[in-house]
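Here is one chain, start to finish.
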Amino acid sequence: MRSNFLRLPISSFMLVAFVLGCLNELEQPFDLNLYGYAYFPLEVGKFRVYEVDSLQFDIGVNDLPTVDSARFYVREEVVEILQAQTGEEVYRIERYRADDLDEPWKIMDVTTESLTTNQAHRTENNLRFINLVFPIEEGVVWDGNQFIPDDIVVFVAGESVEMFKNWRYEILSEGLSESIGQHTFESVATVQQANDENEIEFRFSQEKYAENVGLVYRERWILDSYCKYTGETGPCIGLDWRSKSGRGFIMREAIIDFN
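Its structure:
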């Protein structure tokens, strides 16, 4: 009896198998965790507490620098979701300060955070930063301050400083285990926001994000030497930045509690 089965060459069967295999792959859901959104979790009720150490520099008597040091604590809590005019969800975060953990928290300011498909945004003091870009990959570079003019000034100890000169964001590492304070995080992404130095200015900023926690560490050195303002560079030659800074600050924030 003659079979009605259509006889195809072996190459045709291989082609059909290849196409079916591709279809099966397309049907499988894409794992969004591969993008790294877990490094920037947003959920109402989430909180983080940081220990903050800071040094503020100013020019004192005889044009020599003075230094004020402080240690305090900051608590951030996501309190509600707002709807932006663009339709995106914006998470409102209240920030509190205490000089000691036994003292009551006092409201300090309010910030917001939001996510797009490929960016994580944070707004502080009406300045909008692009803190992360997705997918999280080592070596990726972007302009995280594209909404902020380079020459905008901030005031430190009453003096103006061009804080955001020559910032350049880059993911230095991703997925590494790291201990910060009393906590060890299995997967941390490190973002360098600035690392630019000359004889009279130093701009360094770095942030670390842990999966399912968010920001766990931040360090910033925003410094101008006092020789920038006296016009004599000679006295600053050979001095380290703690010795020659006349304006600016050094600040470190490390997480100590979270949920």
